[in-house]
């Protein structure tokens, strides 16, 4: 992605900035997908209350971290 240089000090994003942006986007998308899948699966097997919240939190963090890592690698390539 090229950014046009102008006299107003716009700059082209660095590689680290692109990787960081890819990780944040992937983490957000992964956490949203993890929330949906884990809520449905926990409710289907009958988990309620604190068990539901713990399961949803764990799945959101795992899927967010995994998808964020793959998106960061993809943005680097």
Q: What does the overall shape look like? A: rod-shaped
Helix content percent band: over 70%
Task: Briefly note the structural class of the backbone.
Answer: mainly alpha
Low-confidence stretches: none
Distance between the termini: 12 Å
Strand content: under 5%
Fold and architecture overview:
By secondary structure, this protein is mainly alpha-helical. 75% of the residues lie in helices and 0% in strands. It has helices at residues 15-45, 50-76. Helix 1 packs antiparallel against helix 2.
Brief account:
It is found in: Membrane. The protein is mostly helical.
Which key features would you list for this structure?
mainly alpha; single chain; 2 helices; 77 residues; rod-shaped
What is the fold's blueprint, element by element?
Elements: H1 15-45, H2 50-76
Helix pairs in contact: 1-2
InterPro entries: Romo1/Mgr2 (IPR018450)
Transmembrane segments: 23-43
Main location: membrane
């Amino acid at each position: 992605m090229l950014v046009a240089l102008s006299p107003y000090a716009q700059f082209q994003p660095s590689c680290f900035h692109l990787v960081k942006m890819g990780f944040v986007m992937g983490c957000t998308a992964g956490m949203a997908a993890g929330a949906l899948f884990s809520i449905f699966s926990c409710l289907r097997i009958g988990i309620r209350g604190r068990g539901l919240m713990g399961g949803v939190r764990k799945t959101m963090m795992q899927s967010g971290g995994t998808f964020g890592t793959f998106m960061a690698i993809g943005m680097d390539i």
